[in-house]
UniProtKB/TrEMBL annotation:
It comes from Ancylostoma duodenale. One of its GO terms (cellular component) is extracellular space. GO terms for molecular function: metallocarboxypeptidase activity; zinc ion binding. It holds the Pfam family Peptidase_M14. One of its GO terms (biological process) is proteolysis. This is Peptidase M14 domain-containing protein. Residues 1-92 form the Peptidase M14 domain. PANTHER family: PEPTIDASE M14 CARBOXYPEPTIDASE A DOMAIN-CONTAINING PROTEIN (PTHR11705:SF59), PROTEASE FAMILY M14 CARBOXYPEPTIDASE A,B (PTHR11705). InterPro entries: Peptidase_M14. Its cofactor is Zn(2+).
Length: 92
């Protein structure tokens, strides 16, 4: 699993926010929303006052896909399998 930590280093503990996407295999848009969120934070830091404030005051943890095996399986499998709503975590 890949995670992104966004925040400014400080000498004290800051509140944290956790955002995850792609919990379930067929939640494809959730992955894209999480990636878009990361891009917005990175590109608008120092430009957008609210985003800059959030990043300065918080540690933000983003996990775009919590179920990478299921995500890949649902995107690359035959349609009949996906349409049958096979959504279990893959451990086979």
């Amino acid at each position: 699993m890949l995670s992104f930590t966004i925040g400014r280093p400080t000498n004290h503990t800051k509140p944290a926010v956790w955002l995850d996407g792609g919990n379930h295999a067929r939640e494809w848009p959730a992955f894209h929303v999480a990636v878009y969120f990361i891009e917005e934070l990175i590109h608008k830091y120092g430009v957008d006052e609210k985003i800059t404030s959030y990043i300065n005051l918080l540690d933000i943890y983003v996990f775009p896909v919590l179920n990478p095996d299921g995500f890949i399986f649902s995107r690359t499998s035959k349609k009949s399998v996906v349409c049958a709503l096979v959504g279990k975590l893959r451990d086979e």
